[in-house]
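Worked example 3 (structure in, sequence out).
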C-alpha cells in the first residue's frame, strides 16, 4: 500500500530556470541566421541548466529532457521530495506539472462525396483567390511548411508528392527531417495506418499543402514536414509541444540525431490552443519569429457571444490568429474565437477563412471515397491562412517573413454579412469597421497579396 501511494504521488513536471531566453533573443543581431539563434540559445541553456541536470543525475532520474527553446527541463516521475528539492534550487524559477493540451473533439462524419477530379481549386481554397495565383505560376515551391498536430497519413494521394520523406527502392520510407514523434523507441513502428489515428493532423495538412485530384490544398507545391505531438486520443503535453516546436525550427533525423536548422519550416500551422492557460508558449513563439518562421494559430471554437475568447496562444499579440467563415465566404462562423487579444487592445483574430464543411484528408485510406471527409471549425480555417502565407513567400524574392503578413493584411477582402446569432461587436470594434475583433483584417486574397510584390496576378 505504501508503494502504491508513493507511485500515485509522482508526477511529470516542467522545471524552468531563472535565466530566460528572451534576453538572448533580444541581444542577437537583427540579421542573425536561424543556426546562430539556435547556437546562442543552446549555449545559454546548457550553462544555466547544468547544475540542475547534475542534481537530477545524482538522484538517478531517467528520461530527463532539457529544452533549449524555453530554458526548461522536462522531468518525469518526480516525487514530492524531489520536487521540493528542485523548487529550492537557486537556479530554478518554477516547478509545475507538465500540463495537458487537447485538440478539438472531432464530430463524427461520413466519408465525403468526391465528385469529378478538379483542375481548379475546390470551393474553400478558391475563396482566397488561390486559382489566379496558381495560374500565375505560384503554388508554394521552395517554401517549407509544417504543422504541430496529431500526425499525417503521408502516403495519401493528396500529400505524398510534396512530403520531404523519401521511399527507397524496396519501398521503405525514410522520415529523416520530415516527421517527428516524441518517442522513437516505441514498440509499434510508424506506419501510414497509425501515423494519425485521431485524424485532425491529416485533415489540416491537406488544406495547407494538399494537391492530388481534388485540389484540396492552398500551397500544393510547398514541401511539408510534421511534428506529431498529439496522441491517438488528441492529447499532448507541454513538454512534447515544446520539443515539437524545437524540431520544426531545427529538424533532426527520425531518431532525433543530427539536427539541421537549414531544413526548418518557414510556416508553422497550429490548430490547437487553450482557454488562456497556455502562457508557456511565449518563448517558443519568440524563437520562431526570430528564426523567420511564422506561427499561425486557430482562434478556437467558443461561445457565439463571447468576446475576448480567442484561445491562447492565438490571442498573443505576436501570433497570427485565424477565425472562421461559414458556408459562404461572406458569412460568419459564429463559434469562432473573438478578440480583443491578450492586453485587451490587440485585434484578434488577424484573418478569417472558410471553416465549415471543409473537405480534406481522411487518415484511414490513401485515396477514394474512404480517403476524404468534411470537418468544421477554426482548426480547418487555420491552414488556409498558413497556406496563404506560404504562397506569398514563394511568390517573389521581395517577399520575406518580415513583410508577407503586412501584405496579406493590406489586401484582404472585407465584404461580409453581419453576424447572426453571434456577437457583432467586441472590444469596442464593430463587425464592419476594419480591422475588428470579429473578422480581423478580413479574408486573405493571395493574388492581391502577391501582386503587391510585383507578381502579375489578377
Amino acid at each position: 500500500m505504501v508503494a502504491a501511494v508513493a507511485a500515485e504521488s509522482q508526477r511529470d513536471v516542467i522545471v524552468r530556470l531563472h535565466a530566460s531566453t528572451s534576453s538572448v533573443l533580444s541581444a542577437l543581431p537583427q540579421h542573425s541566421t536561424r543556426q546562430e539563434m539556435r547556437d546562442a540559445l543552446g549555449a545559454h541553456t546548457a550553462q544555466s541548466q547544468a547544475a540542475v541536470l547534475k542534481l537530477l543525475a545524482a538522484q538517478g532520474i531517467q528520461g530527463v529532457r532539457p529544452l533549449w527553446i524555453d530554458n526548461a527541463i522536462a522531468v518525469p516521475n518526480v516525487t514530492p521530495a524531489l520536487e521540493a528539492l528542485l523548487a529550492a534550487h537557486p537556479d530554478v524559477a518554477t516547478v509545475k506539472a507538465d500540463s495537458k493540451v487537447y485538440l478539438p473533439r472531432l464530430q463524427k462524419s461520413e466519408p465525403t462525396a468526391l465528385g469529378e477530379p478538379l483542375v481548379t481549386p475546390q470551393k474553400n481554397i478558391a475563396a482566397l483567390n488561390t486559382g489566379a495565383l496558381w495560374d500565375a505560376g505560384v503554388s508554394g515551391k521552395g517554401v517549407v511548411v509544417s504543422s504541430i498536430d496529431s500526425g499525417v497519413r503521408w502516403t495519401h494521394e493528396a500529400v505524398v508528392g510534396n512530403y520531404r520523406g523519401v521511399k527507397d527502392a524496396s519501398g521503405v520510407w525514410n522520415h529523416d527531417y520530415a516527421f517527428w514523434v516524441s518517442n522513437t523507441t516505441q514498440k509499434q513502428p510508424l506506419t501510414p495506418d497509425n501515423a494519425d489515428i485521431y485524424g485532425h493532423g491529416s485533415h489540416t495538412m491537406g488544406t495547407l499543402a494538399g494537391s492530388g485530384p481534388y485540389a484540396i490544398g492552398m500551397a500544393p507545391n510547398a514541401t511539408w514536414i510534421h511534428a506529431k505531438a498529439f496522441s491517438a486520443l488528441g492529447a499532448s503535453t507541454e513538454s512534447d509541444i515544446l520539443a515539437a516546436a524545437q524540431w520544426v525550427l531545427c529538424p533532426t533525423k527520425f531518431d532525433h540525431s543530427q539536427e539541421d536548422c537549414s531544413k526548418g519550416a518557414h510556416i508553422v500551422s497550429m490548430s490547437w490552443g487553450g482557454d488562456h492557460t497556455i502562457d508557456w508558449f511565449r518563448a517558443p513563439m519568440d524563437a520562431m519569429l526570430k528564426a523567420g518562421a511564422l506561427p499561425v494559430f486557430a482562434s478556437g471554437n467558443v461561445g457565439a457571444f463571447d468576446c475576448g475568447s480567442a484561445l491562447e496562444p492565438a490571442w498573443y499579440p505576436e501570433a497570427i490568429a485565424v477565425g472562421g467563415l461559414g458556408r459562404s465566404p461572406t458569412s460568419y462562423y459564429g463559434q469562432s474565437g473573438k478578440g480583443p487579444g491578450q492586453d485587451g487592445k490587440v485585434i484578434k483574430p488577424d484573418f478569417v477563412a472558410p471553416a465549415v464543411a471543409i473537405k480534406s484528408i481522411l487518415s484511414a485510406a490513401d485515396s477514394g471515397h474512404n480517403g476524404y471527409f468534411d470537418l468544421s471549425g477554426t482548426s480547418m480555417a487555420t491552414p488556409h491562412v498558413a497556406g496563404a502565407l506560404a504562397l506569398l513567400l514563394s511568390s517573389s524574392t521581395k517577399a520575406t517573413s518580415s513583410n508577407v503578413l503586412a501584405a496579406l493584411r493590406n489586401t484582404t477582402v472585407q465584404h461580409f454579412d453581419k453576424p447572426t446569432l453571434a456577437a457583432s461587436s467586441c472590444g469596442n470594434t464593430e463587425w464592419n469597421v476594419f480591422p475588428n475583433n470579429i473578422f480581423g483584417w478580413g479574408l486573405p486574397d493571395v493574388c492581391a497579396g502577391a501582386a503587391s510584390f510585383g507578381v502579375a496576378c489578377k
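Notes: The two ends are 73 Å apart (CA to CA). The chain has two domains: 2-98, 123-451.
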